[in-house]
Amino acid sequence: MVSTDTAAWPAVLSVILVAVATLGVGAVGLRLSRTTSDFYVASRMIGPRWNASAICGEYLSAASFLGVAGLVLTFGVDILWYPVGYTAGYLVLLALVAAPLRRSGAYTLPDFAEIRLASRTVRRLASMLVVGIGWLYLLPQFQGAGLALRTVTGAPRWVGALVVGVVVMLNVVAGGMRSVTFVQAFQFWLKLTAIAVPVLILAVAWQSDGAPDPSRPQPPTVRETTTVRVPDTVRLRVDEAVPVTMRGTLDGVRVDGPVVLGAGRRVVEGGSEVTLPAGSVVPHVESVRAADGATWSQPLAGAGGRDHPTYRLYSLLLALFFGTMGLPHVLVRFYTNPDGRAARRTTLVVIGLLGAFYVFTPFYGAMGRIYALDLLLTGRTDAVVLLLPSRMLPEPWATGVSMLLVAGAFAAFLSTSSGLTVSVAGVLSQDLLRGRLRSTVRGFRLGAVLAVAVPIVLSFATLRTSLADTVGLAFAVAASTFCPLLVLGIWWRGLTKAGAVAGLVVGGSLASGAVLWTIVVGARFTDAATSVGSSPGLLGALLAQPAAWTVPTAFAVMVGVSLLTRRTVPKSVGRTMVRLHTPERLVLDRGPARRDP
Amino acid sequence: MAAATRPPNRPPTREIDEQTDIGEVYMRSLLRAQLRRGLTVLAVVAVFLAALPVLFTVEPRLATVRILTVPLPWLLLGVTVYPLLLAASWWLVRAAERTERDFAELVERD
Asked: Cβ contacts (< 8 Å) between A352 and chain B: which residues?
């Protein structure tokens, strides 16, 4: 008999260790960075390898550590495109943006907008977008933290979000994370270890279990008698009547004992416990079409019940390819490269490190297909990575491996949220707060509080979208706004202020409109945590994966309006192009030098 | 290049600094070389990636091929893609650095 319970204390210990290590290393780094007086001086001694580890540390978030495996469990092989896209985004960054962006001397995207177009308006617009994208990306980090802590300790969902929020606040307000490339690099290696080592141990357990095939052509069943706790009310679709033992409320009626879940739609209320006998077909949340193993492992077979899988796939890929360059926390790290050449080499190492991480994630989804299919009943498939050790391993292995995975997951929440919080807080205090708060330490701290508080509050609201899907929406907004700004700004002299404003406004409103619809309205069509934007039909698909139409529109508007206002091309553009594209060692006039922020 | 029209002893870096037509020619050639290479690599990678789903749709039997018990689509998307991305990036970095070296030699000659 298995259940979703595991002992709470090792997981809590894990979380505490990661938090203390993060704060501790941050504090040491802070002292070091003070003695060097300027952390940029220090950072220029950092080679591409450290820098790349730091970028990966910041980049690999809850979506990568937990979300991808959860989606693989539900939707199968098509989800492998997510990590491919997360990685290929850096190839686009490398080919079009990395070196020129570093050479521009821009520390943030608003900086770049101002350097290139000499316009405060574009700068403010870019600042607002950074805050919006940052919040959208922070939201799933806090959701993930809540989910993770609930999975391993049973604590209410807000506890995890609050723990991560507080640690991030302490870190950022103390200024620790800001200076320490080293902390982020450490987090990356922790995450890589935490995802890789358990794979080896779980693979041994799977082999000694007779290596059951996750893609066997049968409907999803539980192998052992399984007790599932249903934390929030779910609407289920039962394909085949299942006799279960239940304590709780079914279709509005109190049940305590054996009951048959008849075929059709059933509502199980939050707080119920359902025990599925061994071998029974898992009833699943309504929004997911449970695929048999064969469909699950077949590309574009529409496993999981999302219609228009081909459109969704290509649109998602577009968002991931072109969105990476617009993520605020990633771009900040490029500034710490000594020069454009190092920025390219750093990106190259990033691609290698991300590949090394992502080859491990699908394994968890596939194992979940065998050992944790009951997650389809609650829809909380994002928890699969954390549940597997207790399902597959004997004690004390289960506890040990589980501690490692919890540590990795919290490292993911902490590093990504810290990086995002620093970026959002910096932009808030520099560009959006007024009066005496602008660009002061108090302003930065207030910015940090705002940066963390808004997504935490949003994460308490019952926005039931999966981690990887919400992150995908942040990518879509970035791809529809900052991608055209960067690509055209770097490679096309004809970009004008009016063109940039028009493109950012149109691309930004289209993409965020689609995102809001998907999260707020679309989510009403479903009860599932696994299924963002399940509003049916082509329109639902277009809104859930907007990049395929918003990115080309943003490019077209930016180019079109620039051509119409061609007389207002900034006079400094020639000099700016010299600055962006020529190797630093050449002695050339690059316009007035920017000082370090 | 219009060598005859410019006075001798004007190094190309000065042409670029003064944003003369000749300086513009240097800059445009650098930008064009880098942009063209970047877009070419991206196009090749994009075509390769975009072709995978098509391949499995056109020839569904390929999806059932197994290598060491792992089905082919899982192997291609889960593992093989990453070394290919890394190889493309490595080539891109080397080629971009070579272009910059050539550019530097070109404009630094007297």
From this structure: 86
Cβ–Cβ gap A347/B71 under 8 Å: no
CB contact under 8 A, A578 and B49: no
- pLDDT tens across A451-486, in order? 888 888 887 765 556 666 778 889 999 999 999 999
Residues 211-250 of A with CB under 8 A from B: 211, 215
Give the pLDDT of residue A534. 47
Put simply, whether B74 touches A (Cβ < 8 Å) is yes
Please give the residue that has the higher pLDDT: either A282 or A530: A282
Which residue in this structure is represented by tokens 């910059």?
B100
CB proximity under 8 Å: B 33-72 to A: 34-35, 37-39, 41-42, 45-46, 49-50, 52-53, 56-57, 60, 63, 69, 71
Specify the DSSP element, H or E, that contains A234: strand A234-238
Alpha helices in chain B (DSSP H): 12-17, 21-58, 72-75, 81-108
Stretch B57-62: mean pLDDT, rounded? 80
Instruction: Provide DSSP, A245-293.
Output: EEEEEETTEEEEEEEEE-SEEEEE-TTEEEEEPTTPBPPEETT-BPPPH
Distance CA(A527)–CA(A333), nearest Å, equals: 38
- Closest to A139 measured CA to CA, from A554, A548, A402, A523: A523
Domain boundaries, chain B: 18-108
Single-letter residue type at B5: T
| pLDDT greater than 50 at residue A192 | yes
Mean pLDDT of A181-198: 88
Q: Look at residues A98, A518, A85 and name the one whose alpha carbon lies nearest to residue B93.
A: A98
CB A507 within 8 A of CB A117: no
Categorize the per-residue pLDDT at A143 as very low, low, confident or very high, splitting at 50, 70 and 90.
Answer: confident
Write down the ipTM of this complex.
0.89
Residue A362 to residue B97, Cβ atoms within 8 A: no
pLDDT of residue A293: 74
**A190/A184 Cα distance (integer angstroms):** 10
Q: Give the pLDDT score at A585.
A: 83
Average pLDDT over residues A421-431: 83
What residues of A are in contact with residue B108 (Cβ under 8 Å)? 586
Contact B27 A94 (CB under 8 A): no
Could you give the domains of chain A?
Answer: 2-208+296-581 (1.20.1730.10), 226-281 (no CATH)
